[in-house]
């Protein structure tokens, strides 16, 4: 009997950029829409609303990129420190590290003899890679990439933020809040759908949870805007 080998794609391979992308787009859409929604509720002049929207878009994108870069860089530094420590142990205590790897495989269900054989062969091939993957949990898929995360966050924030800015720009003053509310909720639903599909997750829970946060955000900022508009 012959077997054909194939490699199926896995959704976890997208985690590095998918998390940053979804977070950026969600933040851009909700934060800018809520800001403009609350500002429109206070009934300022249209020029003020537009300047605020564009300024918030630029500042938010830069903030997301910087925050994601610093956060993921810290993760990458921790991973490098762990790998350096593991390499030191492999150099100075190779037998103990081999025994540790054997125990890991035995805990996963391999027999003593097979666990020893697997540990020895993987150690001969690439000891650091074996310990990084099976002892620490660091793989090429999960390894942090600061620049990739920062770029994905900034671009996705701009994409998410552009919707409420353009809706505000193209809407009449009397219809700004209604158009913002409708477009934001539709945009959030599409974002939830796309993120669920890209990540292989159920669609309905993803849409529901993102819509709940969107409604809360729009509702709270509108109340703040109405309050300050009446107080002015």
Give keywords.
232 residues, mainly alpha, membrane
Overview of this protein structure:
- One of its GO terms (cellular component) is endomembrane system.
- GO terms for molecular function: manganese ion transmembrane transporter activity.
- It comes from Testudinibacter aquarius.
- This is VIT family protein.
- The protein has seven helices and no strands.
- The protein has 232 residues and is mainly α.
- The protein has a domain at 15-84 and 150-231.
- The longest helix has 47 residues, at 46-92.
Question: Topology, pairings included?
Answer:
Layout: H1 15-41, H2 46-92, H3 94-107, H4 112-136, H5 146-170, H6 176-199, H7 203-231
Helix pairs in contact: 1-2, 1-5, 1-6, 1-7, 2-3, 2-4, 2-5, 3-4, 5-6, 6-7
Subcellular location: Endomembrane system
Protein name: VIT family protein
Keywords: Membrane, Transmembrane, Transmembrane helix
Structural class of the helices, strands and pairings?
mainly alpha
Order of helices and strands: HHHHHHH
Per DSSP E runs of 2 or more residues, the count of β-strands stands at 0
Number of helices, where a helix is a run of at least 4 consecutive DSSP H or I residues: 7
Tell me the overall shape: elongated
Strand residues, percent: under 5%
Q: pLDDT below 50 for ≥5 consecutive residues: which ranges?
A: 10-14
N- to C-terminal separation?
A: 82 Å
Largest sheet composition = none
The value of Rg in angstroms is 25 Å
> In which range does the helix fraction lie?
over 70%
- Average pLDDT, all residues: 82
